[in-house]
Amino acid sequence: MITFDKVTKNYGNITALSEITFSISQGEFAFLTGPSGSGKTTIIKLLLREITPTSGTIKIGDVDIKKLKPDKIPILRRRLGVVFQDFKLLPDRTVFENVALTLEILGEEKKSIPKKVKDILAITELLDRANLFPAQLAGGELQRAVIARAVVGKPDLLLADEPTGNLDPTTSSQIMKLLKTIHQKGTTILMATHNAGIVNEMTQRVISLKKGKLIKDEQSGKYPHKD
Fold first, then answer.
1. What is the pLDDT of residues 148-175, one digit of tens each?
2. For FRET with 99, which of 55, 146, 195, 219 sits at 20 to 30 Å CA-CA?
3. Cβ–Cβ contacts within 10 Å for residue 220, how many?
4. Domains, the chain, ordered by start
5. 46: closest CA among 31, 64, 27?
6. Is residue 204 within 8 Å of 221, Cβ to Cβ?
């Protein structure tokens, strides 16, 4: 599903990633951990093809991201679901409309969109909030709406960049329960986080970074005691 082979990313004289190698199989749930500045967000941006590696190879399935032509980037991104810490919902659209937009972009038949949106809003417990605008939602509801938007199109891979970063512990637990449900339905998930409590409770695979270097990669892992 994902392959990083000796990936380095430089920003001028600053090395954000150095010789990073790992692979994630279809159906896995993996945490990407490390303190701020360790390279987590850089990996997410590389997978989204917002940036390209300075050296090394990145593949999603059989697609070599560095060699991808500009007109093929939108096609790649349609295979991905993305959950951002800062939500990025359209403020002038309701929850229903924000989620439906994903299906419209994917070219879904218009008549099938309402049912698919309602189905995912039921899973994310947002059916009763469907006609509200983002400004009318609490933090946890906003994040559930972002997750609904990200997975309604049934992506091959879900990328979550600090999805619980601004949430209280109870709401964070609810978000992780939702992500676990989505994972159990077959979606591959890579989640960047520095929340040690969540990582230790979930006991999934842990890929740990420090100053742009991979320092640990283990199944059923724990958050590193020292970053």
1. 999 999 998 999 998 888 888 888 999 9
2. 195
3. 9
4. 25-49+80-218 (3.40.50.300)
5. 64
6. yes
Q: Give the contacts of 101 (CB within 8 A, at least 6 positions apart).
A: 90, 93, 149
pLDDT band at 225 (very low <50, low <70, confident <90, very high): low
Tell me which residue has tokens 């590389």: 46
| Residue-level pLDDT at 192 | 94
With b for 16 or more beta-carbon neighbours within 10 A and e for fewer, the 75-87 pattern comes to ebbeebbbbbbeb
Q: What's the CA gap between 113 and 125, in Å, rounded?
A: 18
What are the backbone angles phi and psi of residue 119, rounded to the nearest 5°?
A: -60, -45
Residues shown for the chain: 227
pTM, two decimals, is: 0.90
The values of phi and psi at residue 98, to 5°, are -65, -45
pLDDT by residue (tens digit) across 29-85? 999 999 888 999 999 999 999 999 999 999 999 999 999 999 999 888 888 999 987
Give, to the nearest 10 degrees, the angle between helix 113-123 and helix 169-184.
Answer: 130
Choice between 227 and 60, residue whose per-residue pLDDT is larger? 60
What DSSP designation does 135 have? G
